[in-house]
Amino acid sequence: MKRPKLLLVTKSRQTFEVFHQQLTEYFKDDDLQIVSLNEENCRDSDLILLSSEKLMDTQKFPAEKTIVSRRGLDISKLEDLVKLPSDSECIVVNNLLENTDEIIDLLKSLGFEFNMHPYYPGSNQKIDGIDTAIVPSVIELVPPYIKNIIDIGIRPLDFSTIIEVSIRLGLDSEKVNSQSTRYVKEIISLSQKLSSSLDIVKNLNHQLEAIFNTVHDGLIATDDHGHILKINKAAKDILNYSNPESILGKNAPLLFPRLFIENKKSKDLKETAIVNVNEKKLVVNKSEIIVNNRKIGELTAFQDVTRIQYLEKSIRKDMQKIGFSSRYTSKDILGSSRKIKEIMSVVEKIAKTDHTVMILGENGTGKELFAHSIHDLSARGDGPLIPVNFAGLPQSLAESELFGYEDGTFTGAKKGGKQGLFEIAHNGTIFLDEIGDAPLHIQTLLLRVLQEKQVMRVGGRNLIPVNVRVIAATNKDLKQLVKEGKFREDLYYRLFVLPIRVPPLRERKEDILDLLHYFIENNSTATPEISPAVIKELLDYDWPGNVRELIGVVQYMTAVMDDNCITLNDLPEQFREKMEKDERQENDLLATLQKEGDLKEFYVILSSLSQAKKQMKNIGRGKVVENVMIEGYNLTEQKVRRRMAILRDHGLIYCGVKGKGSKISETGEALLKMLEPTLKV
Ligand SMILES: Nc1ncnc2c1ncn2[C@@H]1O[C@H](COP(=O)(O)OP(=O)(O)OP(=O)(O)O)[C@@H](O)[C@H]1O
User: Fold this and answer.
1) Cα(57)–Cα(50) distance, rounded to whole angstroms?
2) Rounded to the nearest 5 degrees, what angle is found at the Cα of 301, between the Cα atoms of 295 and 307?
3) Ligand 1 center to residue 115 CA distance, Å?
4) In the 8-state DSSP scheme, what is residue 278?
5) What atom in ligand 1 is closest to the CA of residue 366?
6) Angle 182-185-189 from CA coordinates, rounded to 5°
7) Superfamily designation of domain 324-503
């Protein structure tokens, strides 16, 4: 059988080669002879295949055996086109306007909706803002300002043209069929790729939708004309929108005028506006939605302030639970002494200022209690109160605890870094307890925060502004530490803006009874009876550990007492020592007095002075001798003088100089009381 001859007419050599290769893939060499254009071939070819209709005009081809090829796209190059967003602006480049238009038409017919502008030699227009070109292999024609070139390659013959060639030449179509399987496979693989990326997009969309609806902020996305593109559940809840009809596409400013129109007053998009809607106060923020460098609409985000206030409250409650808020208020400070009343009135005044406070006082006097009260009474009372105790803070940790650290600063450091206590105390108060124990390098950093009101995390480079009030406390003599070079003088002056001194308990003994009764009530179910002797011991005691020691003593007494009654036996160790010492001293005194004379003689001298004291009188030796005689004791003035000197030497009486008379002391009265039961006549 004669081998049919196909004349292939193309404009370029490259196209000829692509077509040739394609046809020989489908038809065996011995089935079909493919030839290029010359006169002879034109005459005796069985079929003429033109690559483009334009070629019809170049020469008179016999119409009955001429077909114009339909051209497709190289599937292997389609992927880049598919990835290009559908509303992209691009130029389509080719050698002639009509060839360019042909590609544009083809792409449109395939469903690509890019904004395509023809570009060919001589068109010379520069289209602003376009940086993508679609080009069938002729990359050299692409203008230099284009950054993104999508080469779709030389467009091959459309599959239908190959089928037509096979039919017109009466060729075996079995091979064509088998080849078509490969073509279909390519399409399937491409569409699989596409559908898997579509799946990813679908999943992403799904996740975005979920996030959109999970946030508590109201979110409304609108297009450039204010039509709603998307609205989340929170937005509908906040705006009380329960209309079941679809809200998408509706005009947002018409539907929610207060939210959109009132908010328009803020010119700056980033500005936050407060708008009243349905008796709710909403904080509104707007931002632009930008896609491919183009603004396509706006996102309006809003929160119900009442909800924020509620959240703040519950956070504050949580902070209280973990100790980040004041545990005590001024009502917790007990005591009715003049000193405590004075200090409370100072505390109230100090609390109204925002200055640094330095609380001085011995251990256990209640410095922490005062710090909490100042914070609680201040304008920062609703903010955090962060206590830092330098006595218990390891030196190695002090800096990172106070100032925080950045991610990756040390091995084992928390991912994402950690806030320091100063940052946590923002808008509140930091209580620097036992400040005298702060290491010198930390003192330097503290000074910097106090001066600059900014902190820098360990390993960080940014300064973080903090608004924190400082209350410091110490039981040490800071002035002395400054002299010894252990405390920075500049920090000392920074801290001593408002110093207050909490007096030790022994200087305000009136408070002992208030505190005693309060703590006893707190430590026992039924209020116990307290023997007066115990009260006397408690009032006489020096309380080196102050209120903290008193709490301990009450706990001890209520634990060991019998029959709900506290007696001398229930006093703890430190009292027993004192009582034994007192007893020893008493016995020593009695022994000394007895050595010097009759105890009764001392008794009458003391009793005579005690009587005079009751009458608010100081009496001289002569009067004492007189009184002693009245009592029936015949003591010479000399003897009386000697006994009075002994009493004076033991602190039982005071003797005035030059006839000013003498007076019984408190210890003298105590001894008198002790001797009374046995010696009183
Ligand atoms: N005036 C007061 N009224 C009621 N409780 C008090 C009073 N003063 C102190 N306390 C109680 O005494 C205990 C010790 O007080 P706080 O810890 O405030 O003393 P501090 O001076 O800070 O001691 P330190 O210097 O040892 O830290 C606490 O339990 C506190 O509640």
Assistant:
1) 11
2) 175
3) 78
4) T
5) 18
6) 145
7) P-loop containing nucleotide triphosphate hydrolases (3.40.50.300)
CATH T-level fold of 215-308: Beta-Lactamase (3.30.450)
CA 153 to each of CA 15, 103, 612: distance values in angstroms, whole numbers, following the listed order = 10, 12, 129
> If you ran DSSP here, which 8-state letter would residue 152 be given?
-
The whole-model pTM stands at 0.49
Distance from residue 518's CA to the centre of ligand 1 (Å): 14
Distance CA(475)–CA(436), nearest Å, equals: 8
Give residue 370 CA to ligand 1 midpoint distance, Å. Answer: 8
Q: What is the pLDDT of residue 554?
A: 93
Looking at residue 409, its pLDDT comes to 57
DSSP 147: -
Which protein residue's CA is at the shortest distance from atom 29 of ligand 1? 548
Q: What ranges do the domains of the chain cover?
A: 5-72+163-171, 75-155, 215-308, 324-503, 506-571, 579-679
Contacts 24+ apart (CB under 8 A), 227-234: 227/251, 227/252, 228/252, 228/255, 229/297
pLDDT at 390: 92
Q: What are phi and psi of 469, to 5 degrees?
A: -95, 140
Q: How far is CA 24 from CA 19, 179, 186, 548, 650, in A?
A: 9, 11, 19, 103, 135
- Report pLDDT for 411: 54
Ligand 1 closest atom vs CA 389:
27
The domain 579-679 is placed in CATH, from the list 1.10.10.10, 3.30.365.10, 2.170.190.11, 3.40.50.1980, at 1.10.10.10
Tokens of 393: 């803070």
Q: What's phi and psi for 540, nearest 5 deg?
A: -80, -20
Determine the Cα–Cα distance for residues 319 and 428; give it in Å rounded to an integer. 12
Ligand 1 pocket residues where CB is under 6 Å: 332-335, 361, 363-369, 433, 475, 547-548, 551
Ranges assigned E (strand) in 412-476: 418-419, 428-433, 454-456, 463-465, 468-474
Give CA–CA dist 303/281, Å, rounded. Answer: 8
How is the beta sheet containing 294-304 ordered, strand by strand?
Answer: 228-231, 218-223, 294-304, 280-291, 273-277
What is the residue whose two structure tokens read 């030059």? 658
Q: Taking phi first (over 0 means left), then psi (-120 to 50 degrees means alpha), and beta for anything else, what does residue 52 get?
A: beta
If one counts every other C-beta atom within 10 angstroms of the C-beta of residue 100, the result is: 24
From 365, 471, 507, the mutation candidate for ligand 1 (largest count of ligand atoms within 8 A of CB) is 365
Domain covering 506-571, topology: Helicase, Ruva Protein; domain 3 (1.10.8)
Judged by DSSP in three states, 470 sits in strand
Helical pair 510-523 and 532-540, crossing angle rounded to 10 deg: 120
User: Which residue bears the tokens 């075996």?
Assistant: 172
Ligand 1 midpoint to CA 556 (Å): 18
Name the stretches of the chain with pLDDT < 50.
266
In order of 286, 312, 316, 677, the CA distances from 418 in angstroms are: 31, 21, 20, 73
Which of 327, 548, 551 most suits a substitution to test ligand 1, by most atoms within 8 Å of the C-beta? 548
Scanning the structure block, which residue is given the tokens 């308990």?
505
Residue owning the nearest CA to atom 13 of ligand 1: 548
